[in-house]
Amino acid sequence: MSFEEAKQILQMEDNGTSLYDHLSQVLLKVITEKPVDAVTSFENLSISVKGEKVTLPPAPDSSAEASGPVLDWSTKTAALFVKPDEAPEGVPGPDLMADAGMYEWAGVSFGKTETYRLYLSIKKFCETLDVGYQAVKFWGKVTSRNGDYYVCYGKTPENPEDMDATAMEGTEGANKYTYFVTKGVSEPWVSLPNVSMAQIVTAGKIRRLLTGDLAAAVPSYPPFPGNEANLLRAMIARITADCAIAPAGTFEADDEGLIEPVKNDDGDVDPPKKECEELLSKDAWTHYELRLNTLGRCTKLPEPEDAEDYEAPEGDEVPEPLGACGEEEGTDEWSMRPCPGGAGMTAGSYAKAVSLTWPGAYAVAGGKSFVNVYVGNGLKYSVGTYTPPLPAGIGKEWSVPEEEADAEVEPGTFPLEGKDITADPTPPAEEEDE
Amino acid sequence: MDISLVSTKLGPSGFTLSPEEASGMEVAMIQRQMEEKMGSKLQFWGKLIGEEQDYLLAYSLTPAFGFPSKKFYFCTTANFTLKQLPELSEEYITKSKGVSGRFRGDPSFPLEEPPEDAPEAEEGVEVESFREIHRLAHTVATIDHDVAVVPVGAFIADAAKQIIVNKAYSGLSYGASGALRSYFHFRKAESPLAVASLEKPGLARPGDIFDAIEDDKPAGTWSVTYDSSNTTACVRSFYWPGYFFFQTVGAAEYGGVYFGNGLPNKDLAFGL
To answer: Which residue ranges are recorded for the region named Disordered (chain A) (predicted)?
Structure first.
């Protein structure tokens, strides 16, 4: 067979192209793209050449679908970097960049650049806040099924006017702080509603993941009284009560149980300086927020004014403020570690407390500073498999009102239906014969 | 994933390695790689949080017929020397499944009472018994089987039906990276569809050679979202909370890690 003949065979048309053309295109692809594994991936190169012929390679992703959200995000975020003309008012924000260095030792980071944007975002938000919130601190991040919630908080300025003190605690208890969440640094911060006792208690009985929409309903059994914003707020309340810990001596409680940071004679906040070694025992840490009792409260239920022999319901107890860490089995388990430890450990190392009860909750302390942070899905650690609680007992049947229950129906028997009236009660008057 | 990406790409997950862990692990991985003369780089797998110490884990991929073989290495945060996790016998796998609760963080922690008629341990010789290292090996293998993810096209089947890295992989578009169907289990195919496409003659398309995570039950066990800047797609598992996978939009940059306590969310059905 001559060369010309062989070439003719190769150039036979098949589906509009020939093997000759195809091979030369594959070789052209190899020469232009220079893949290092041309022999291994030859079949794939061949198939991609064939594929390119049928459909053009997709143009670089410049569609509105792709550029829209990214452009939108960058435009909004760029606004964070604009310095305001006038000195801003509002409340002070957290020193997030310094805190982030401590978070990193606990294994928590949002990425260096993102943390700075978060810092700017909180700072900008603080400038819009009323001074009643005093100062804003960063709390952490709660993950959801669709995007995450960054959480920060400030002191609740005052109780709402129409607050029912038997269903919801005010600023002295679980609603000491108002929490704010955002789903992204360029999104607005949204204030979460105050939390009620029922919400805290029910949140402990269900194991729902957040959906990422604050207005979403929470379908669950037992029924959760509220929407996702309430559930998130209840999760935060539970985690804060269990996981807000600080080195002992940083806070002190006054006679009324109010917890305040320790101050020096000049009235400045002045916590004692701690060395790493001391902080590795659980006794060296205390809870600086009030713990929740089984009723979902940190304070005693208010006694009704009119009741004479008022009996407090079961569980209406108030845990001691500033309780030592790790005292309660099952809700308060921690692991303390030096960081850096091992060869890098010095007296100035940080100590980190890893919550075993709430995976994702950490505290880091060293010298005079400490931080708490949470990153997780808001669910508590549980050993076994979750079983939803059984339905409550059947409700009582309605009883006969007293005035009806005297003569005809004996007490305790079910009221029977009266006999049907078969005769026409108002018979038409007989017509007279004419 | 490549350990150098930990500090830059894991932001959306909220997790990272502390400077101590990251630098210790970097050294340990290079050391193990050089000692075992590995052909490819050791990859960082994740961190398993224990009560006393944490485990740091890495894996290697070696080409093998069919599917590359994965070997797992671990160290604790108390001692940065990577050791290979043991192969498990059927007996130990069954025992591992029966253990519940958190990990201790001590690989030699015994998980069962030694039998009374056990031979006296000779000095310096450790008696073989069921320990936390065996449970760790089982847990890591299970998590990896359930959640290790690859984006479509990152691996291809060559003419001999071997799964190999696609060096020409150039990432996914914005739309594709945000879709669950673009992600697959990085394990030897199990679904009939994928197995069949690997068995039949001819080339198999990259989307046909692995099991789709989209088919996992219950629906909703995975989520794919963009990070806040919409430039990275994040895949998360809710059955293994703490598994995080990222794919940079339009770039061949991807990776998955696990940061968790080694326990699945068995209550997932109540959470969705």
So the answer is: 300-321, 401-434
Q: How far apart are CA A402 and CA A386, in angstroms?
A: 45
Query: Which chain B residues have a beta carbon less than 8 Å from that of A183?
Result: 228
Contact A207 B230 (CB under 8 A): no
Least reliable range by pLDDT among A147-151, A223-227, B167-171: B167-171
Which run of H or E residues covers position A139? strand A136-143
> b or e along A66-86 (b: 16 or more beta carbons within 10 Å of the residue's beta carbon)?
beebeeebeeebeebeeeeee
Residue A282, chain B, CB below 8 Å: the answer is no
Sorting pLDDT into bands at 50, 70 and 90, what band is A375? very high
Residue A181 pLDDT greater than 90, yes or no: yes
Q: Which residues of B touch A381 (CB under 8 A)?
A: 102, 261, 263
Count CB atoms within 10 A of the CB of residue A411: 9
Strands (E), B87-210: 149-151, 155-157, 163-165, 183-185
* B244–chain A nearest CA distance, Å: 12
Please list, residue by residue across A338-357, b when 16 or more beta carbons sit within 10 angstroms of its beta carbon and e when fewer do: bbbbeeeeeeebbbbbbbbb
Residues A149 and A94 sit within 8 Å (Cβ to Cβ): no
Q: Nearest-5° angle of CA B258, CA B259, CA B262?
A: 85
B242 Rama class: left (phi>0) / alpha (psi -120 to 50) / beta: left
Q: What is the pLDDT of residues A156-175, one digit of tens each?
A: 888 888 888 778 888 888 88
For residue A14, count other CB atoms closer than 10 A to its CB. 8
Mean pLDDT of A2-20: 82
Ranges of beta strands (E only) in A237-315 are 245-247, 251-253, 259-261, 285-287
Distance CA B154, CA B168 (A): 8
**Residue B11: which of A111, A186, A388 has the nearest Cβ?**
A111
Question: What is the average pLDDT across B237-252?
Answer: 92
Which DSSP string do the residues of A393-426 spell out, in sequence order? PPPPPP---GGGSSSSS-TTSPPPPPPP--S-SS
CB count within 10 Å of CB A403 equals 6
Contacts of A158 (CB under 8 A, 6+ apart): A132, A171
Mean pLDDT of A51-75: 67
Residue B226 CA to residue B249 CA, distance in Å, equals: 9
**From the CA of A268, how many Å to the nearest CA of chain B?**
32
| List of chain B residues whose C-beta atoms are within 8 Å of the C-beta of residue A114 | 11-12, 228
Beta strands in chain B (DSSP E): 43-49, 54-62, 69-76, 79-84, 149-151, 155-157, 163-165, 183-185, 222-226, 232-237, 243-248, 254-260
- Inter-residue contact A288 to A241 (CB < 8 Å): no
* pLDDT score for A384: 78
Torsion of CA B188, B192, B198, B202, to 10 degrees: -170
Q: Residue A180 above 90 pLDDT?
A: yes
Decide: helix, strand or coil at residue A285.
strand
For B202, the closest chain A residue by CA position comes to: A43
Instruction: Give Rg (Cα) of chain B.
Output: 19
Residue of B18, B177, B182, B259 to mutate, testing the A interface (most A Cβ within 10 Å of its Cβ): B18
pTM to 2 decimals? 0.83
User: What is the spatial distance between Cα B269 and Cα A209, in angstroms, rounded to a whole number?
Assistant: 10
B134-181, pLDDT tens digit by residue?
999 999 999 999 999 999 989 988 877 888 888 888 888 888 899 999
Rounded Cα gap, residues B3 and B267, in angstroms: 32
